[in-house]
Amino acid sequence: MTLTPYYRREATHHMKTQATTPTLGKNIKMLRTNMGLTQQQLADYLEVSREEVSYFENQTRKPSVAVLHKLTDLFGVDLADILSPDPSAQALNAAFAFRSVGELQAAQLQQIAAFRRIVSNYVKMDNLLSRED
């Protein structure tokens, strides 16, 4: 019988509880690559290390709620879409995606995210107003 030291068991258990669903990591990577961004560009925008982005994509760590909101703003998707296991849920949003032609800096990505947030809020308001009619 092989005994695993307690500290190793604890670390293994911690790693398992920190893991995310494969869907979230795959979706982050898909949306990032569809936009033509490197992990470093996304990390600069999110104000995290490139390794942290890799951890998110490989399902080793979960992004914080604040990071998830920044991702949804940048990619122009709803939180439900980024968590969805169904790729068709992102099909409409992908239609409005663009691909980076050059190196985008964090400040430019913040402007894109702000613009997409405005458009998203406008669409939501328009939908609410159309229900009233």
TrEMBL record:
UniProt keyword terms in alphabetical order: DNA-binding
Domain of life, source organism: Bacteria
Source species of the chain: Hymenobacter metallicola
Cited SUPFAM superfamilies: lambda repressor-like DNA-binding domains
PROSITE patterns: HTH_CROC1
Pfam families: HTH_3 (PF01381)
Record keyword Flavoprotein present: no
Protein's name according to its UniProt entry: XRE family transcriptional regulator
Gene Ontology MF annotations: DNA binding
SMART domains the record matches: HTH_XRE
Domain HTH cro/C1-type: 28-82
Keyword DNA repair attributed: no
